[in-house]
Design brief:
It contains five helices and eleven strands. It has 234 residues and is an alpha/beta fold. α1 packs across α4 and α2 packs parallel to α3. The longest helix has 17 residues. The chain is globular, with a radius of gyration of 17 Å.
Length: 234
């Protein structure tokens, strides 16, 4: 059993693409947020009930965050899964994005509880729309490869798809570390209102890390380690 989730909502096209990409890896249980929770990070709900309602196709929509979805799945809806997969997020989760991404938080929550996870996101180029069928096709062999590898407890895989032109050849897959370069601290301030205006496409980057690889047109896979010490049971 694989648990699938996202942070764009249970009816997002990226989640349907992930389900398609995971076909053949085993039965899938989809447990995803009722509403979009993009950028929510690792927020969890502890002081109010969560509503978990089954929708068409056996999808469970949860009135909470991606981390909530994983917690509820592991405890009740789909205990003891082989993997937790999150995505495909509409937008890159590169470099320091891993700290505020709800998509990444979902698999981080799984790893905390001893379940391996893979987060998949799709960078969006300027003035382009995502071809979800193409994204599913690119993602399928990456998932097959990563789920066949031995898992090191305390780690997860973060995958980012590039956004080349429609007529470009399929991108190569490369493995790169997460880029530590900070995002722009650029705001448009009007009175008491401050609106973020950072340039995601022009963000700082290292040549040897994930941001440069993905924005350069390659599918980039990063291994992320959570702990200095092995978790219990690791």
């Amino acid at each position: 059993m694989l648990v699938l989730t996202n942070d764009d909502g249970f009816d997002a096209p990226g989640l349907a693409a992930l389900l398609k990409a995971a076909a053949g890896l085993g039965p899938c249980r989809v447990v995803a947020p009722l509403l979009g929770e993009s950028g929510c990070g690792h927020r969890i709900t502890t002081h109010q009930p969560l509503l978990a309602a089954e929708r068409s196709g056996g999808v469970v929509a949860v009135s909470g965050t991606p981390a909530d979805c994983v917690r509820l799945a592991l405890h009740h809806l789909a205990p003891d899964p082989a993997w937790v997969l999150a995505g495909i997020n509409a937008g890159g989760n590169l470099g320091v994005d891993v700290f505020h991404s709800g998509t990444v938080a979902a698999v981080r929550e799984a790893v905390i509880h001893g379940v391996p996870g893979i987060a998949v996101s799709h960078y969006i180029g300027r003035d382009r729309t995502i071809d979800w069928a193409r994204a599913a096709r690119w993602t399928a062999p990456v998932l097959a490869d990563l789920t066949a590898r031995p898992w090191t407890p305390g780690t997860f895989w973060n995958v980012n798809l590039p956004h080349p032109p429609a007529d470009a050849p399929d991108p190569e897959v490369v493995f790169r570390p997460v880029d530590p370069s900070p995002l722009d601290l650029r705001y448009e301030v009007e009175g008491e209102r401050a609106s973020y205006r950072g340039d995601y496409h022009g963000r700082a980057r290292r040549d040897d890390a994930d941001v440069a690889a993905c924005l350069g047109g390659r599918i980039v896979v990063s291994l992320v380690r959570l702990f200095e010490f092995d978790p219990p049971g690791g």
